[in-house]
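Sequence and fold:
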Amino acid sequence: MIPIFIIGAPRSGTNILRDTITSNEDYITWDCDEINYIWRYGHPFKKDDMLNISDLNNKNSNYIKSKFREIIKLNYPRGNFLIEKTCANCLRVNFVSKLFPEGKFIYIKRDPYDCIYSIRERWIGDTTRNYLFKKAKYIPKEELLYYVFRYFSQRIRKSLRKSNEMPTWGPRFKDIDNFRKNHSLIETCAKQWKECTQKAEKELKKIDNLNNKVTYITYEEFIIDPQNTVKLIFKNLNIPINFKDFDIRKINQNSIGKGENALTKYEKLAIDNLINE
């Protein structure tokens, strides 16, 4: 079974793209949003999500691959392709590619204002217990105590804040905590978007030298014309499909331009200054 990795900054459409693809029984995935705990196996104390090829060893390589095999076995006989979309993989494409050299990649990019605005909404939002339990199932047993302690310490820190802002959310770039201390939340979200997109694009470019390994789309073209965009994705990956087997009923255009309209001119200026520096 060939793994297909959806790569994109947080809030760039990775969820709806995965859900659309896996509405076809040829494509399977996990029953939770992301599996960052699995990818970080052996590195629970690492303060960021940036893993390099040098971070791979027999122990974590065997563990990660075993978890992929478990999902394949669980879904058998359904599926010929396994879809994975952990957003933090933006920061470690080389790591993922080295571990799964047979894998293919779909890169999705969204308008920075819309994406950064949506990222900020998640920083000040909250998560349901059901969502947390689904993700917690995939915490490695030997690392469970650490992650439980981290979760409760973060909840305590949030309760002591005057705002609803989470202590951290989404992919953790290098020195994210220090950056947040010295910058506004919207600047932190812009930095998160920038780090994710730049690192992903740089590392995907190297893989792109191989035929039918990487395809690029935008969130906007997918939302506006999902049928032709999905056809293009699989044409570029050299995977035959029948589009009628995909469900696009959840797709709508309501979020296009939302950030552009909601952000103030000062917030847009802060974003522009940060992502263009």
Q: What stands out?
A: The longest strand covers residues 2-7. The chain is about 50% helix and 10% strand. The CA atoms of residues 34 and 159 lie 25 Å apart.
